[in-house]
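Lay summary. Proteins are chains of building blocks that fold into shapes, and those shapes determine what they do. In this project we predict the shape from the chain. Here is one chain we studied, written as its sequence of building blocks.
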Amino acid sequence: MTSQPNPLRRYLAGTLLLALGLAMAIGAISCQRGLATQAGWNKSFGPVVPHDTFPADCRLCHAGTNWTTLRSDFAFDHEARTGVPLRGAHKSVACLECHNDRGPVKRFADQGCAGCHVDPHRTTLGRLCADCHNEQTWRPKDSIARHNRTRFALVGAHASVACFACHPGAQVSNFSGSDTACFSCHQKNFANARAPNHVAQGFSNQCQTCHTPTGWRPAFFRHIAAFPLTGGHSGVECAQCHKGSVFFAVSTECVSCHLADFRKTRTPNHVAAGFSTDCTNCHTTRAWQGARFVHTPAFPLTGGHAGVACASCHRGSIFRGLPADCVSCHLKDYLGTRKPNHAASGFSQVCSLCHTIRSWTSGQADRLAPAVRKPHHK
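And here is the predicted shape, written in a compact code that computers can read:
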């Protein structure tokens, strides 16, 4: 006779088997989670991402028993496996930067750059990151060229200035509009200028009147029309004429700057000769040397007289009260002439009777009137 199983025993056996199976399942799950937790997962990466869609073979990515260490020869062809190529700097980004617990990657990828990159410019520079940035580096591209399409082109020294020098919020990516007036950035330069002192002289704060964007020095100033800086005056340091940083109500007369030159001149001695202090009578702004003097109309310097040094006639720096007759200068020539001997022949000392001012050697006796010619003896 076959014995019948005890129902209570069967129930207990079944319950025991069910509890054992459940315990094993729970243990397996706890073990898997424990590997990730106990191995010291870097919390900055965020929580562990579910691997539901990943390949089942953990050894494709993980090395040994260290759950947080990837294989040294780990390689994942993102484009081949997902259809999305990773270019430039995106190739080196950690997987969890995009694949994390925030949600499906596609939801963020559909938003473009803004899906992953918070706009630090607060949309003040537009919404298209690719206008300034590329995938190779986050540093902006063609920033100078792009800035030149604004109302303030970056030329000269401005092209090398740090952004935050004009945009105080640039260090936190805030490039809100700035005042384009020079003084808004260069107020300190204006206040500290000492050669000359801009504040004391009441100079205009329109910096572009004297300065250019290629360099703060040297400055260029368009002088008043009443005294243009031409010739030798151009390029002269302001302080040479504006002594003591006096820029207004300065005399425009030459002698106000050139009195020392006037007094020390010796060829000829201007003071002894009683010359006018109006330098423009003889000098020009092109050069101090090579002075030209318009001689008195009573004795024009033409022909051979043109270009003769003043001292040839004005000996001893005597320029007033000199006789205008030829012999006063040419007596020595008259006495020294032998062909013919003027003194022995009793020739007149009025040189112009035979000579012209073009050349001393071109004397013609037949220019004499018949009444004053000497008779010829046979």
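What the prediction tells us: The radius of gyration is 51 Å.
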